[in-house]
Amino acid sequence: MRIKSLLIAAAVLAVMAGVAAPDAAAQFRAAEFEYGERFDLPEGEAAEIWNPAMKKLIEGGPMVGGTVRATDPRTYCAMAAAGYDFIWVEMQHEAIDWEQVARMWRTCPGPAAPGVRVAYADEREIQHATDMGAAVIVVPTVDSVEEAQEAVNWTYFPPMGRRSAGGGQGPSSLWNDVPGGYRQTWNDNVVLILMIETLEGVEAAREIAKIPGVDGLFAASGDLGNFSGYGEGDAEYDAIITEVAEAALEAGIHACAPLRWADRPHYTCFQAGTEGANIRRGAAAELAQANDRFGNSGAGGTEPTGSGTVALLANLTADCGSITYEADCNASFEAAATAAAGMSADEQERVVRRLRQVLGANPNHADRLRGIAQRAGLSLD
Fold it and tell me: Could you tell me if residue 355 is inside a domain?
């Protein structure tokens, strides 16, 4: 008791004398720490770009990603070898787990770079993606600068971000022999795209685009309509889309969008169709060519005309056979209706018949589709 009393008395006297007790926690300050050189490349050596998606962006684009919603490695491999720069595996809106994704990437790590749309900006989500091998990270519904910074934090290694060095098949197998080393060159090779889908996101887009590490802003065509109540062709909608694109241009990063916007100025990175749409499109084109050649007799016939009818019908089948993205169907419907005016009578009849089939199969969209055809100068009544 005597020792304890003496210690208390000494502490009181120290306070009375204005002497602060030592603060062990204040002896080290992280903000004042200078990051080391362990992961620096040799002096004068720049990081080699081994990610084909990043390489395309550096060249100015276009960078095009094919979309995979399935879990079958064979399907994934077909998409990965189809010519896309990266594959956008859909983890936001599909019931896919990370083990299935890891298996697909392990089976075919190229030639298209493995990429993914995660569910949200989160340490677990993004580090699952990067540790499994993703080289392109797409983050949806980014509403604020704070959320965008979280996406950067978990995508990049220190000192730029806060990604943990946890291993996984990405660094240990898929990318273990990249030039310069995975850890040393990762921050130069990963592609991070943030999706602007809400009104709050549009409001913050210019500040989000300026955050170091953000490579592109994606103007989400469907959800910007969902959150605004307007659609493509409406002045209010177009103003929102323009704001997102201008935010990217102002910051010197890439403006991204669905591939059907490839003819719009300023966009340099795109999301292309799903594996399901590609299967339907390919089958429709193959069967249309067979019908052109053999007719209904099963033999003989003529060569395809080359007018583009086959491609138009294939796109209608892919985009409107089972409508996933309404805007994609509208675009294919408009293209077919517009092209029909310059076709021969026989070809026009084929296109009109197919357009009417789409109307019948999609009664909830019929009025809008009929209006699209009328504006293109084609009556479907």
Answer: yes
* pLDDT tens profile 316-331: 777 777 666 777 788 8
Does 93 participate in catalysis according to the annotation?
yes
Co-location of 137 and 98 in the same domain: yes
Tell me if 10 is assigned to some domain. Answer: no
**Which residue is it, tokens 């241009």?**
249
Residues 13, 7: Cα–Cα separation, whole Å = 10
* Same-domain check for residues 81 and 147: yes
In a domain, 45, yes or no: no
Same domain, 205 and 324: no
Instruction: Report yes or no on 104 lying in a domain.
Output: yes
- The number of distinct structural domains making up the chain is 2
**Cβ-defined contacts of 209-214 (< 8 Å, 24+):** 209/247, 209/248, 209/250, 209/251, 209/253, 210/251, 211/145, 211/148, 211/149, 211/152, 212/152, 212/160, 213/152, 213/155, 213/156, 213/160, 213/161, 214/148, 214/151, 214/152, 214/251, 214/253
Measuring CA to CA, which residue among 90, 125, 53, 111 is closest to residue 325? 90
CATH of the domain at 101: 3.20.20.60
What is the extent of the structural domain holding 282? 276-375
Beta-carbon contacts of residue 218 (< 8 Å; ≥ 6 apart) = 138, 193, 194, 195, 196, 256, 257, 269, 271
Q: Cα separation of 205 and 196, whole Å?
A: 7
Task: Dump pLDDT digits (tens) for 132-165.
Answer: 999 999 999 999 999 999 999 999 999 999 999 9
In a shared domain, residues 251 and 323: no
Question: Which pTM does this prediction carry?
Answer: 0.78
For residues 193 and 95, state if they share a domain. yes
- Confirm if 123 and 186 have CB atoms less than 8 A apart: no
Q: Which of 93, 128, 254, 365 is catalytic?
A: 93
C-alpha distances in Å from residue 44, one per residue of 47, 179, 184:
10, 15, 14
Strand partners, 216: 193, 254
At residue 73, the 3 state secondary structure works out as helix
Q: For residue 271, how far is the Cα from the chain centroid?
A: 6
